[in-house]
């Protein structure tokens, strides 16, 4: 049996236990491993120390760390679990927690990072259910009935009722009075992650009509899906549709992305890698947006730059980076080297001018493209290029930029065997190298370092 390609951590909603993940897991194929995360006060898990969302995130991270072995992973968060998933994703990308490899999120009728828009009368009704202790059967069944678009099977309804009744009254109250009202937007900002949001059209407060307004600013790459005649309890109501969203996200955004080998992912997640380095590597490992819209270049510029990148930085099939889009994003944020000769145009303008010139002389056949590139690099006269030396100097920047955005990706660092990102710890016990001798490696470095087969695979010389 082959190992799963992806681990999906499922974070259930208020009143739901880990069993809520089971219908989705059953609907997925063996490429996916589903790990349900029991949130505090649910399914027999102990209550958290406080009612904050971060306390729930801490509990979820403990579970995630225990199960991750360096593989790529997704978060699937439902309702309350959606808010927890968003905060968890933000913390993972910030690098301050020892995890790595988050590729995207699937959110099911999620509670937003801001205060949840629950009607006051609904909030008061749900508070009243725990005034005398744990939720009674009649109230638990009311909760289930109120949150589905159509009746469930009696077996599923009974499972849900039992789950709601087992929820800690403290956890229930804390969510209604604290967690659901917490505003995390400033600390989260915009998350550049692949995201699919699934919601039912019969969900009163967190349904399909509300989600774009609640989440678009947080997930600029989000795609929204409406499930007709569905309510709020989507993993039971529409497990197949939820599984389809997970498969689509994985296939579209993640399957072609450059994968970081497990040993290297574990090193990035370890205490040897400081938060600042982990943050940079996590951002670089996020899958490219297949619908990326250029911010400095225009579409023809971007397509030409992609063709140039394919000739200059060939990449393994099925494990590619959109180098041109990454260069455009770098230009948009002023992330170049900061050096320009006096009177020279800005980096962005130089790119636009240079690509405009090349666009008129760029051949369609790859061998002819290589010939043109060689002439430009040499500063030789090229028909249609009035300033060969200026083109040569600009193309040096292009070559540097494309090579740089490839090299700084953690998959590329693994491919060339560079582990220096894990040497900056302030703790002498985990800082630097013990040995810098040629052909040797420290015990903490991935075992493939120094292995002739691995070095041959990446094109490095062997002894």
From TrEMBL:
Residues 443-463 are annotated as: Disordered. InterPro entries: AB_hydrolase_1, AB_hydrolase_fold, AB_hydrolase_sf. The keyword Hydrolase applies. Gene3D superfamilies: alpha/beta hydrolase. Keywords: Hydrolase. Residues 8-245 form the AB hydrolase-1 domain. SUPFAM superfamilies: alpha/beta-Hydrolases. One of its GO terms (molecular function) is hydrolase activity. This is Alpha/beta hydrolase. It comes from Microbacterium dauci.
């Amino acid at each position: 049996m082959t190992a799963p390609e992806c681990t999906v951590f499922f974070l259930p909603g208020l009143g739901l236990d880990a069993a809520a993940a089971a219908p989705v897991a059953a609907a997925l194929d063996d490429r996916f491993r589903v790990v349900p995360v029991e949130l505090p006060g649910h399914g027999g898990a102990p209550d958290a120390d406080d009612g904050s969302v971060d306390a729930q995130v801490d509990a979820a991270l403990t579970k995630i760390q225990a199960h991750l072995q360096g593989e790529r992973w997704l978060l699937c968060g439902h309702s309350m679990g959606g808010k927890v998933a968003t905060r968890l994703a933000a913390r993972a990308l910030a690098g301050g927690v020892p995890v790595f490899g988050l590729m995207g999120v699937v959110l099911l009728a999620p509670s937003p990072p801001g205060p949840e828009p629950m009607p006051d009368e609904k909030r008061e009704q749900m508070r009243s259910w725990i005034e005398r202790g744990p939720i009674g059967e009649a109230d638990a069944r009311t909760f289930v009935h109120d949150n589905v678009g159509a009746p469930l099977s009696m077996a599923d309804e009974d499972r849900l009722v039992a789950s709601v009744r087992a929820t800690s009254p403290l956890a229930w109250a804390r969510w209604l009075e604290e967690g659901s009202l917490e505003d995390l937007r400033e600390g989260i900002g915009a998350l550049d992650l692949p995201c699919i949001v699934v919601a039912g059209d019969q969900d009163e407060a967190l349904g399909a009509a509300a989600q774009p307004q609640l989440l678009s600013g947080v997930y600029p790459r989000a795609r929204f899906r409406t499930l007709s005649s569905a309510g709020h309890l989507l993993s039971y109501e529409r497990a197949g549709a939820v599984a389809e969203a997970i498969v689509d996200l994985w296939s579209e955004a993640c399957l072609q992305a450059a994968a970081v080998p497990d040993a290297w992912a574990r090193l990035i997640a370890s205490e040897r890698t400081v938060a600042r380095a982990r943050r940079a590597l996590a951002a670089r490992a996020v899958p490219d947006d297949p619908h990326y819209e250029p911010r400095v270049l225009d579409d023809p510029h971007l397509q030409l730059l992609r063709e140039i990148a394919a000739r200059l930085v060939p990449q393994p099939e099925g494990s590619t980076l959109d180098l041109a889009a990454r260069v455009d994003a770098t230009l948009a944020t002023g992330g170049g080297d900061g050096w320009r000769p006096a009177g020279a145009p800005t980096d962005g303008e130089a790119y636009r001018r240079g690509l405009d010139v090349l666009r008129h002389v760029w051949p369609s056949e790859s061998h002819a493209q290589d010939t043109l590139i060689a002439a430009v690099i040499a500063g030789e006269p090229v028909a249609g290029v009035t300033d060969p030396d200026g083109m040569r100097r600009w193309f040096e920047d292009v070559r540097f930029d494309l090579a740089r955005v490839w090299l700084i990706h953690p998959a590329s660092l693994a491919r060339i065997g560079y582990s220096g990102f894990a040497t900056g710890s302030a703790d002498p016990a985990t800082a630097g190298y013990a040995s810098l001798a040629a052909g040797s490696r420290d015990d903490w470095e991935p075992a493939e370092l120094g292995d002739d087969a691995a070095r041959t695979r990446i094109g490095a010389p062997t002894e």
